[in-house]
Amino acid sequence: MTPSVKTIGIVTFADCGGKEQSLFRVNPGIPAREALEHASNLFYYAKKLMLDAAMEEQGERYAWPAYYLCEMGKAVVDDLSQEMLSSIEPQ
Q1: How many angstroms separate the CA atoms of 31 and 34, rounded?
Q2: pTM for this model (two decimals)
Q3: Domain ranges, ordered by start, for the chain
Q4: Ramachandran angles phi, psi of 22, nearest 5°
Q5: DSSP 27
Q6: Cross-referenced InterPro entries, in alphabetical order (predicted)?
Q7: What are the φ/ψ torsions at residue 25 (nearest 5 degrees)?
Q8: In this structure, is the dihedral angle defined by the CA atoms of residues 65, 45, 3 and 88, taken in order, positive or negative?
């Protein structure tokens, strides 16, 4: 991965207001390595919460935090993907 790849800040997440607005956005200018490391951590903890949800009798309390962590991680990956794909597509 080239060091020049950074987040572009166009992917939003946490839809609210009847899904007409998003509450959060990925910030632009974050180097890909740091952004992917952060996304990996988000997915790691989401995985831990999902395992707890599956194993606990009242595991549903873990479902929403895991959902939001996955939503944040996906936004980071999607934002970087759009930047990387735009750099390889013919102009």
Answers
A1: 6
A2: 0.85
A3: 12-88
A4: -110, 140
A5: P
A6: DUF3077
A7: -145, 145
A8: negative
